[in-house]
Amino acid sequence: MARSAVADQPVRRGSDYAVLSRQISEAGLLERRPGRYAARIALTAAPFLAGWAVVVAVGNSWAQLLMAVGMAVATTQVAFLGHDAGHRQMFRRRGPSELAGLLAGNLAVGLSYGWWVDKHNRHHANPNHTDEDPDVGGGALVWTHEQAAATPAYLRWLARRQAWLFFPMLLLEGMHLHVASVRALVGRSGGGWRTPMRHRGVEGLLLVAHAVGYLGLLFTVMSPAKALAFIAIHQGLFGLYMGCAFAPNHKGMPMPTDSDDLDYLRKQVLTSRNVRGGRFVDVALGGLNYQIEHHLFPNMPRGNLRRAQPIVSAYCAEIGVPYAETGLVESYRQALAHLHEVGRPLRG
User: Fold this and answer.
1) What does the pLDDT look like over 313-328, one tens digit per residue?
2) Contact 345, 162 (CB under 8 A)
């Protein structure tokens, strides 16, 4: 079914995207909203900083485990700001965008901003393409029957059960992101750096500052056992929240290959899925629930995505391009169903 959605598209598309882009631009939806973003940054940073102040005030208490839950939510919301900065949704100029991204990503969350931007840009360029999109490359999870067939023997047990293990595995995603950031920072290949970064030295200093501040604060205000429990809950739920925010967007959607002749508009729309749910879902998913609009216009400010949605959906209906939109629970069901189907040959 996913494969046919790609194959059924006509070969000649002309300037379909140019027409849509003109409509979006005339509606003023690509204009930056510095005032709105200043308020969003303040409303996101305040709970984050206040939460760490409460952690210090609570001290050596098992009540810190509840604080770890709240801080996982606050940390993910800060990470969403780093995502927006990486797409220059906040500021048109590179300098202020990179400063915001480095502060939100490296210092506050402990993730390499440069590594994430490189990885995420490759995802945006070729979403759901197994050879080009790093988010669906072979690894702990497999996304195609070809990847499943090539799975090493020691990972086949996991691949057979990956739909059932998907959410538990996300509890490790937070630590994986930290490790991947450090590896990207220091990794070399062929005499050069493996991952391009504009501010490698600054990123390294900020990651060290984050680690020293994070671990120093926790092990100062609470016992080692409580600090380790806090870290496990905080990082586990941070990874789970991040995974739950990104999983509904593309998993289970068509996966184009080099043989598919798709223009930019169809490449982005056919591989993406929107999630309904109103203002609460908008905040909870950091605007990523408007994934189609975000992929078509990555630098569109988050607050404008909701206004762009009816324009994009109407235009897709006009030119006959399928526009996928579903509820949050259904989006997870479709993603898990895809994972389960991909692992079917290994179960046989």
Assistant:
1) 999 999 999 999 999 9
2) no
Mean pLDDT in residue range 27-41 = 93
CB within 8 Å of 208: residues ≥ 6 apart: none
Distance CA 200, CA 128 (A): 29
Partnered with residue 275 across adjacent β-strands are 326
Q: What is the dihedral of CA 94, 97, 99, 101, to 10 degrees?
A: -130
Are the CB atoms for 218 and 67 separated by under 8 Å?
A: no
Taking the complete model, does pTM exceed 0.70, yes or no?
yes
- Separation CA 250–CA 54 (nearest Å): 37
- Contact predicate 271/323, CB 8 Å: no
What CA–CA distance (Å, rounded) separates 266 from 6?
Answer: 8
Helices (H), the chain: 2-7, 16-26, 34-58, 64-86, 94-102, 113-125, 145-149, 153-160, 162-170, 173-186, 200-221, 224-250, 264-270, 278-284, 291-296, 305-319, 328-342, 344-347
Tokens describing residue 255: 């996966």
pLDDT in tens, 256-286: 988 888 999 999 999 999 999 999 999 999 9
Tokens of 69: 């839950």
For 13, 217, 225, the CA distances from 62, given in Å and listed in that order, are 60, 16, 10
Distance between CA 115 and CA 118 in Å, rounded? 5
Phi-psi region of 190 (alpha: psi -120 to 50; beta: other; left: phi over 0): left
Nearest Cα to 347, choosing from 137, 68, 145? Answer: 145
